[in-house]
Amino acid sequence: MLGGSKVSKTKVITIFGTRPEAIKMAPLVKELEKREEIESKVCVTAQHREMLDQVLELFDIKPDFDLNIMKTRQTLTGITNKVLEGLEEIFQKEKPDMILVHGDTTTTFAGSLAAFYQQIRVGHVEAGLRTFNKYFPFPEEMNRKLTGSLADLHFAPTKGSKENLLREGINESDIYITGNTVIDAMEHTVEEDYKFVNEELQQIDFNKKVIMVTAHRRENWGEGIENICESLKKIVEENSEVQIVYLVHLNPVVKDVVFNKLGNMERVHLLPPLDTKETHNLMNKSFMVMTDSGGLQEEAPHLGKPVLVLRDVTERPEAVQYGTVKLVGTNIQNIVDEATKLINNTEEYIKMSKAVNPYGDGVASIRIADAIFKYFNISQKEVNEFKR
């Protein structure tokens, strides 16, 4: 709670509900566990269930609280209500000094709002990302912006993210540039001699030009996903050395379209979402990545993989500026042209694959923990912020 002095350990509850959040929060959870001055607890909402559990197992994280809210065809309103109600009870009992949330999910926004209602401090990891269009991506853009209004500490991954927060009136003393915790996570997951568990991946010749694909965002439902599938079809038909590995989201709105359009094509492998370790190592062995995901825009450049982003805008402009990522939208010809350029033009490929990754150096979690120490006067050591 706000105010008053503490003699006991500082209690921090880390909250997340989806696989991407779990991947990025796992290194921070492990770092907080090392700090004797912190009483670290974990609450999962299980906004996603199976995919979340895979990450918990990988990083050996055992949640102290599990709201287990996931339902088939759940709505944003339903998720928000369940998170608010579930966390109210936990907060009243536990009385944490701070909660930590990540990024832009509905769990993140609802968790921050629940903490605000109990006057509990909020630390926002991966703060300050913006497209400046409230419906792109939906609902993520408003989730992160509203969370930013509720947060007390803002852990911005880049200088650009910090500048966004300053323009919104956030005090500079409450912002720390930390780099992105996903880079910390990849230090744990990527192995050069990795052997795939998935049998279909075991059969793929990664000496060929394998393109890893994910596409599932709400703003691409319908025509966007259809265009992406048509583009992939043309790319495979026009380039005999190319194979596609498409990790198909389980949502029927996406899955039905993808299997209808690409299900019978040679050199196209339609796989369910893989666990984190399989995904990161697939990315590492692939030639390039095509995605509408936010996280992959950070992860792939760390591995030297060019990324074509299947969106018209991105909240991660740094990678575009540095040249590791290119926005291609969902126009069929544009996607095909840009992919073909990378497939056939070695100079273009090298230019993107060798560009600097602006997202982190593997110690973001240490910086965040140090900032929490400073905030609660556990230590007055200055935080060594990420400089890139």
TrEMBL record:
InterPro entries: UDP_GlcNAc_Epimerase_2_dom, WecB-like. Keywords: Isomerase. Residues 30-372 form the UDP-N-acetylglucosamine 2-epimerase domain. It is an enzyme of class 5 (isomerase). GO terms for molecular function: UDP-N-acetylglucosamine 2-epimerase activity. It comes from the Bacteria. Its EC number is 5.1.3.14. Belongs to the UDP-N-acetylglucosamine 2-epimerase family. This is UDP-N-acetylglucosamine 2-epimerase (non-hydrolyzing). It comes from Clostridium weizhouense. The lineage of its organism: Bacteria, Bacillati, Bacillota, Clostridia, Eubacteriales. The gene is wecB.
